[in-house]
Specification:
alpha+beta; two-stranded antiparallel sheet; 3 helices; 17% helix
Amino acid sequence: MNSDAFAKIESAAQDGAFGHNQRPTPTDRQCLAGNYKVGRVLIYGMPVAIEQPRHSYRTGIDPKTGKRWASRLAAHYGYFSGTKGADGDPVDCFIGPYPQSETAWIINQHVGGAFDEHKVMLCFPDYETARRAYLDSYERGWKGLHSLVKVFHRSNCAGGSRTAT
């Protein structure tokens, strides 16, 4: 295992506003506006912003019902900086504890029976671990996982280092 890569990812996860640090927790308005500190790290050479570390709670208010929701994250959660996903926001990602993994996975997330957005699973050793991390980060019975697709093998990527830097 590349302990240096693991340490860099863990440090970035704790550096944001939701990490274990002295920063104040962002308000709902700050969260909606994306106006809070995130941890930043390169994973496989790609810039990732980590919003919330594993075992923290993502919260929000359902715009349809007005009810508050909360989900405990089974993996670090963030996004690829400088990207735009199907929902208009940056492409989301979950980051597992295995930076030596050579595989990334794409979740095709459906909500209400229709495609919603993609979620990328990085640093997971296998299909089942990526699948469980995704499902365990939502409420019990979540039906959003339409499919999980293997997208690349690190040794097939062109260019320099693909570990966290």
